Amino acid sequence: MRITNELIEQFNACEPGVNTMLELFPNGGEYEEVLAAAKQSDELHGDKGREAFIRMMKRNPKVWLLIEGTKVKDVYHVFNPLTGQHTSCNSLEEAKQTRAQYMQDYLESHKQMFSAAQEIETGNGDTLWNPIDLDKM
Fold this sequence. Notes:
Layout: E1 2-3, H1 5-10, H2 15-24, E2 29-30, H3 31-45, H4 49-58, H5 61-66, E3 76-80, E4 85-89, H6 92-109, E5 116-121, E6 127-132
Antiparallel strand pairs: 1-2, 3-4, 5-6
Helix pairs in contact: 3-4
């Protein structure tokens, strides 16, 4: 995969990273070359160029799809806010259903946070809100 300066900028690389890329690879470079240069920069300057480069790449999953040997798996991970865990799903449809269930479970467990009130207009023109329990109606 060819890493271009435009690609680096598109993925919100830090300014020193963009400048280093322009200096070392004015016409872009192959992925392994750029990664090796970032590692060498670590050794010479004690910074975290390689780690920053990898973080930048990981923040942009579409880039990984362009790298030779990358495989797209039909596995989806759905976060459950009640447990703090992810559930693996083997299809997009299963992921959608799991997400819908987690949303329903979350709303059910937090229903006390949601309130309703009936508006009552008094004889003198004031308006009152009378809290009601929707579960009992």
